[in-house]
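In response to the reviewer comment on reproducibility (Comment 2.3), we provide here a single inverse folding case reported in full, input and output, so that an independent group could reproduce the run without further information from us. The structure tokens appear first.
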């Protein structure tokens, strides 16, 4: 069988997963972020939608001046 992870990287992932499960139970709850910070992902999403749906400016070749296909 192909071994994708070494023993060290496997142990690192297990320790990291356990840390992600235990730390939220130990640490005190954080206050909510300011409203301006909550709008940053929404603005990034809107920018990505605008860039995805806006037409690109590409110079297409003139079909009339292409050599004929033989």
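Designed residues, in position order:
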């Amino acid at each position: 069988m192909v071994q994708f992870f070494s023993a060290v990287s496997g142990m690192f992932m297990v320790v990291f997963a356990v840390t992600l499960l235990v730390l939220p139970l130990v640490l005190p709850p954080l206050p909510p972020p300011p409203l301006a910070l909550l709008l940053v992902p929404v603005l990034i999403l809107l920018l990505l939608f605008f860039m995805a749906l806006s037409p690109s400016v590409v110079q297409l070749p003139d079909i009339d001046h292409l050599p004929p296909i033989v």
